[in-house]
Each structure stands twice: as C-alpha cells, then as structure tokens.
Amino acid sequence: MRLLKDVIGQHGGLGIRPPFAGPGVRAMFFFRHLDTWPPVDADLSSRLTGPEAARDNRARMLGKAGVQAEALCLVRQVHGHRVIRVDAPTESALEADGMITDVPGLALAILVADCAPVLLYDPVRRAVGACHSGWRGTVQQIVARAIEGMRDEYGTNPGDLHVAIGPCIRRCCYEVDDAVADRVRSTPLERALLPRFGRPGKYVFSLPHAIRLTAEACGVQPDRVYDAGICTSCRNRHLFSHRREGERAGRQMAVIALGVGD
Question: Any transmembrane segments, and where (predicted)?
Fold first, then answer.
C-alpha cells in the first residue's frame, strides 16, 4: 500500500489527488477549506449551510478539480453496504453508500467527516467507483461489493483496479467498544483491530488497514492500493471530524469522474 502525497492548493485548501488522477480520470479528496486566504470552511453537505450554499461550495471546488458540477452524483448515505450503478447526474434521496459508473464525465461524490472515502478506477474497462466506508460499511465489505459490481457490470478484472483511501479517522484516534470489536472479529478483518493498552473493553480499529485487506482479498494488487495517511481527527484544522467536533462538523467530499473524450 502506497501513501498519497500529491497535495493541491495554494492556501491549504482544495485537497489530495490520487496518483492515478490525470487527463483520463479526475479524482480528488477535498479538504474542509476553500482554496482562499484566509481559509474559509466549506461544508459540502447541506447540514450546516443549507442546500444553496452547499451547491455553491461544491461547484467552486469541483471546478478547480476539472469536474462539472452539473454532472454530480450524490446519494443518501446510511452507513450500509449498498452499491448502485448510476448513468446520469442525480442528487437523489436514494439510499446507498457506493456508486459505480462507466459514463464519461459523470462525477461520483462521497461526503465524509471521519468515515473513509474510497475511490476505485479501472483504466482498462474505463469504469470508476466511489464508496463511503465507516466501520459498518467496512465490516460489511462495501468495497468488495463495489468491486463485484464493477466486475459484473463492466467486466472489470480486480487486478487492473486502482483503489485510493482518502483521509479518515485512523487507529491513533479511533477507539471502539466490545460491540464494534465483536462485529470486526466476525469477519476476516480482525488484523485491523488491536486492544487499547490500559483500557479494558476498548480497542483501536484501522479503517484503512481493513479496507486494504478487503481490496487485496478481492484481487487488487497491493501496489495499487493507495492511502492518504492522514487522520481527520488529528488534522481537524484541515478536515472535518465528527468525533472531534460532534454535530458541528461539516462534510468534505471525495469525487471521481472519467475524463470526457479521453
């Protein structure tokens, strides 16, 4: 697994671009700030700012990433494992936590504030996917479901896939209890769980490690799994964190879109 290091933006804003991003595919993990000085928070959901302000913020950020705001696809995320195919722009109330498409220009977007945003790219079959993977989605292996969906819909070979894991809460800050630990232990992801020293009944869980295990078990090559290596709780100055900020936390966005005419 390789770390992402390509940070875009002049003033600590915008975000991190996966190594596979380029003319053929636009992809970005956005930070919480607009690329301005002084930095200005940009909640990309409508929870805190309302729908009009959220749309304006998304359009401004997407434009800098080379993505058309009119091509955006959003779903109602419910911490589940449902992955849907999308063929047209939507800001739907449809419940899902993952999307896949092979339509050029269509921008799949995930909103997060500690959960892991995961972007998938198949350069051979020209298809992309995006997943919202909190502990529930991770335990239910939503990334595996996205890979299976891309295989079934587009003929994707998992060995051709690139998988990028964006900023999320990490093991350093992600303490869970016995109830969550028991769910993790019931899956092949137990290696991503460790007991917390000096705190009986408490554990630390690594979402990126668990997602990597899932992707590699599906056949993704280890050197094509990329990790931002950034904790949302530790880097709360640049990223929203629900665990650190509670209900005051906005949402940052991850987006991926196939290039048009490439």
Answer: none
Q: What is the pLDDT along the chain (262 residues), one digit of tens a residue?
A: 454 555 555 444 588 889 999 889 999 999 987 766 666 777 777 777 778 888 888 888 888 788 888 999 999 999 999 999 999 998 877 899 999 999 999 999 999 999 999 999 999 999 999 999 999 999 999 999 999 999 999 999 999 999 999 999 999 999 999 999 999 999 999 999 999 887 888 999 999 999 999 999 999 999 999 999 999 999 888 898 888 887 777 889 999 999 876 5
CB 81 within 8 Å of CB 145: yes
Q: What is the DSSP letter of 202?
A: E
CA dihedral (14, 20, 22, 25) positive or negative: negative
Please tell me the distance from the alpha carbon of residue 118 to that of residue 255, in angstroms, as a whole number.
9
The three-class DSSP label of residue 213 is helix
Asked if the peptide bond before residue 208 counts as cis, ω within 30 degrees of 0, the response is no
| Full-model pTM | 0.93
User: Phi, psi at residue 80, to the nearest 5°?
Assistant: -115, -150
Residue 71 has which token pair?
């091509």
DSSP code, position 196: P
Task: Spell out the domain ranges in the chain.
Answer: 2-168+219-258
Determine which helix (DSSP H) or strand (DSSP E) holds 91, and give its type and residue range: strand 90-95
Alpha carbon of 23 to those of 60, 129, 259: distances in Å? 20, 17, 6
